[in-house]
Specification:
The chain is of the alpha/beta class. The protein has 2 domains: 160 residues, NAD(P)-binding Rossmann-like Domain (Rossmann fold); 92 residues, ProC C-terminal domain-like (ProC C-terminal domain-like fold). It is built from 12 helices and 8 strands. Helix 7 packs across helix 12 and helix 8 runs antiparallel to helix 9. The chain is elongated, with a radius of gyration of 21 Å.
Length: 267
């Protein structure tokens, strides 16, 4: 992050993931600070990462980038508390608070450039996927800075509208749970068909892991699927059942439900 000072407001899973990712990517501990209302959490942050941890006003003083990583219902009170101080220093505010809209963030913290990001849980192991949205007026330099912060924990993708972030939330934000569910169901089916529970679980998890690695390096997912599917073979038989059960429509309905729920929470 060159000379930039970064403050993480919130010491939950995503906040801690970003701190760890930034340190691994070359940010020096003295360039990082974090805030949490709980004194024990602040002590743990300092012990685990060797960074300065304090209350929000202390942690965000002189930061050039502030990441809002608190629960959505906590965002308003915290930003109103910091509004005057942040207006004086004008850091880039990156919100990862799910569903909290740009208009709300700007009203609580005027005169500060704001953009939003939606990371997902694999950020905890540096394998995250983050969608980012910047409103008009955010410079290319600030966009690059946001990419560096979120890129420290995985892939980053820009979307063209704030509404699209709700789809990002439904697809990649909630997406790990869908894959975990499929692996869970595969393991349970394997057990019912004769495997031990431990064997079925190991095979399902390893298949999930290996398939993800292959998919990451391939732009055409249908081609990957076809490479595993021989005409008249075992894979084709299973995929035919998925098709007969209208799996594509089920997946679309599921993502639509998650997208609509995200918009409800945001409003």
């Amino acid at each position: 992050m060159s000379h930039r000072r970064v403050c993480i407001l919130g010491a939950g899973n995503i906040g801690r993931a970003l701190i760890g990712g930034l340190l691994r990517s070359g940010t020096r501990p003295e360039q990082l600070s974090a805030a949490d209302p709980d004194a024990a959490a602040r002590t743990q942050l300092a012990r685990d990462f060797g960074i300065t941890a304090g209350d929000p006003a202390q942690a965000s003083a002189d930061a050039s980038i502030v990441v809002l990583a608190v629960k959505p219902q906590e965002a308003q009170a915290l930003l109103r508390q910091l509004a005057a101080a942040l207006a004086a220093t004008r850091p880039l505010l990156i919100s990862v608070a799910a569903g909290v809209r740009i208009a709300a963030l700007e009203s609580w913290c005027p005169a500060v450039p704001v953009l939003r990001a939606m990371p997902n849980r694999p950020a905890l192991i540096g394998a995250g996927a983050s969608g980012l949205y910047a409103p008009p007026g955010i410079s290319a330099e600030l966009r690059r800075a946001a990419e560096q912060v979120l890129g420290s924990v995985g892939e980053t993708v820009w979307v063209d509208s704030e509404d699209a972030l709700d789809v990002v939330t439904a697809l990649s934000g909630s997406g790990p749970a869908y894959f975990f569910l499929l692996a869970e169901l595969m393991a349970e089916a394997g057990q019912r068909l004769g495997l031990t529970a431990a064997t079925a679980r190991r095979l399902a998890a390893a298949t999930l892991y290996g398939s993800g690695l292959m998919a990451r390096g391939e732009s055409d997912l249908a081609r990957l699927r076809d490479s595993v599917t021989s005409a008249g073979g075992t894979t084709a038989a299973a995929l035919a059942v998925f098709s007969e059960s209208q799996l594509p429509a089920i997946v679309e309905r599921a993502l639509d439900a998650a997208t609509r729920r995200g918009r409800q929470l945001g409003s």
